[in-house]
């Protein structure tokens, strides 16, 4: 046993690793048996609303944003649970392995503003991208930065999200690199944020292969749930 293994073993006695979906103790932080068997809602493929002149782009997701998946992402994103990143990143890597060509590809996380980074202490999309890239053996590059501190998309109505996401990203200087980018985010709702990132990269002459997010919400209503109008 190496010193690193010993230390990790010791640490896990005091801070046992947790299943991200129920926060129960789980070896290696993997999704536990109960969560696996409960049938985590599988993700989907959708087209992003990229302006026509910038071509089309699809987004693949690992899960639907419901139930345990939603709770896991809320803890990961807003309650400081960075320790979920390896397990969630592996799930995203598995989705990419199944549904995207990876030859010559590298992962690019959707950036957050400097203010958001200070508040939260980390960019959840970067953590996911790093873990997924390590799992897939491809590079992760932080090519984009957010230049405008706009309101968080989840705070806005669907109709306001398109304008809110427009022209808020730019490619960092000196980043002309070969290969094709796969953009990574945690949750996709309207797809406006990812579409804007695709546009920004393609405008700068970079190739974008597709996008991937851990979960998607909003477009497909869960079966059996009808939209209820107010009386
Ligand atoms: Zn679990």
Give a verbal description of the structure:
The chain is α/β, with parallel strands linked by helices. It has one domain: Rossmann fold (3-Layer(aba) Sandwich), CATH 3.40.50. Helices cover 36% and strands 17% of the residues. It has 8 helices and 7 strands; from the N terminus they run ααββααβααβαββαβ. The strands form 2 sheets. It has a 5-stranded mixed beta sheet with strand order 1-2-7-6-3, sandwiched between helices. Strand 6, helix 8 and strand 7 form a beta-alpha-beta unit. Helix 4 packs across helix 6. The protein is globular. 39% of the residues are buried. The C terminus is likely disordered. It binds zinc ion. Zinc ion (ZN) binds next to helix 2. Zinc ion binds next to helix 2.
Give keywords.
five-stranded mixed β-sheet; two-stranded antiparallel ribbon; Rossmann fold; disordered C terminus; binds zinc ion; globular; 231 residues; alpha/beta
